[in-house]
Amino acid sequence: MPDPTQHIAVTLKALRQARGWSLARTAEATGVSKAMLGQIERGESSPTVATLWKIAGGLEGSFSAFLAEPAAAPSAEPQAVLSDSAGMHMRVLIPFDPRWRLEMFAIDLEPGACSESSPHGVGVVEHVIVIEGALEVAEAGRWQTASAGDVLQLDAAQTHAYRNPHEARARFHNLVHYPAGE
Ligand code: MN
After folding, report:
1. In the chain, what are the domains?
2. In this predicted model, what pLDDT tens digit does every residue of 29-39 receive, in sequence order?
């Protein structure tokens, strides 16, 4: 599986420079420290999923842009997997498509995994489509359980979280919708 660290580094630098933002200005907009942003941009450190969401949100970009090249259609090529210490493994299934303003991920949660996410942005909605096992999802602190075959809709403009309290791996597809731009 390709390591996403370098692609994340290059993408962060390109998006930041396209805005003409310093690291300090980017730190202010994303809530991620200047030191951490510098490490990520130099390819010295791979962010957690939660940190990368903060960066994508602050730069008003899609999350998938950090893991995959934009493609006309989903591809069968092996995609980079972003894994973090929360026990979350994330892979792009559908890169952000500006026509429909959506992207889709396959996410694995290890047994005991818990990942908390800050709000992604006003109007961002997620569908959590459970493929394997069972997991719990919180929206604004309220937990709901979902098992294989279930679909939950999540207001991602709120603080939200995903956890797997079970002994078996949980896998879900995460369909993320972004509101129409100006
Ligand atoms: Mn989320």
Report:
1. 5-66 (1.10.260.40), 81-177 (2.60.120.10)
2. 999 999 999 99
